[in-house]
Amino acid sequence: MRARRLIAAALVLATSSGAAAIGEGAATCPALYLDGSPPALTNAKLSARTLPLCFDAYAVLHSGVSRTPLYAAEHLTRASVAAARRVDREDAFHDEDRGPSDERARVEDYIRSGYDRGHMAPAGDMPTAEAQAQSFSLANIVPQNRTFNRGLWSAIEESVRRLASQRGELYVITGPVFEGDSVEAIKGRVLVPTQIFKAVYDPKRGEAGAYLAPNRADGAWRAVSLKTLNAVAGLDAFPTLPDRVKATVMDLPEPREFSRGEPGEARRPEEGWQSWLKSELFRALRRALRDALRSIF
């Protein structure tokens, strides 16, 4: 317990020495940010030992204090979501070798921790196999409650993909919230978020809002404005937006579980029940194997 309090205190007492690095992140991958501007950390205590990192389809601001991302940024389009649905998931979690070694999470930190390795930029958003492999960098991962990660949070991720397909494009910022003076840390190293958010902006309609959910198994969530999110998370997700947009909550879709096919999509006539059953059994076996490996590692 003492170690948890010390780590949380380090986060609270951190200085703003990482501010220069935040600006550097905007220069390296501006296409992933609305108007080329990365989120602004309005709580300067969060910005110590930060490192901006770019990947093919997302960018993160990594914290050497929490050893997690503070946010992940994506630009989802109808085409990128369609491409991502054609990429089979291959779990390959790995250490991120950029940045100081003592400020990074390690694969062994999560072993028998009781927490899932939860993506901030989802593997299911990645439009190529290479981009998906990059999404398994621990720089993109936070400790997530297993029930929450595999249930409500998975549904929120899919709801946002569906919304991007319907609207044509969305800018998305996802990240953790660390609240209180006794934040848990797995292996005394990696801070466990108390809440997780996913902020979205529709540039065609000029609408924005955010999902905000506790990192626990009860399935609770709420839709909040970007202004409220800023007050909770200490982060201005889309700093170039006018205040009136930040103060209004867009109508976010209710999180639901979706299959890879479109809702109500008819099965092709040549796909008989035996073929369907074989496919479903194969998927169930793959899921059971993946969950068994996750529980071990």
Q: How many independent structural domains? A: 2
- Biggest β-sheet description: 7 strands, antiparallel
CATH architecture of the largest domain: 3-Layer(aba) Sandwich
The H-level CATH homologous superfamily of the largest domain, spelled out, is Extracellular Endonuclease, subunit A
How would you classify the helix and strand content by structural class? alpha+beta
Instruction: State which percent range the strand residues make up.
Output: 15-25%
What is the overall shape?
Answer: globular
Strand order within the widest sheet? Answer: 2-3-4-7-10-11-12
Q: Quote the CATH topology of the largest domain.
A: Extracellular Endonuclease, Chain A
pLDDT under 50 segments (min length 5)?
1-27, 258-273
| Alpha carbon gap, first and last residue | 24 Å
Rg to the nearest angstrom? 19 Å
Element order: H for helix, E for strand: HHEEEEHHEHEHEEEEEEHEHH
What is the helical fraction, as a range of percent? 25-40%
Mean pLDDT: 85
CATH top level assignment of the largest domain: Alpha Beta
What is the tally of helical segments? 9
Q: What's the total count of β strands? A: 13
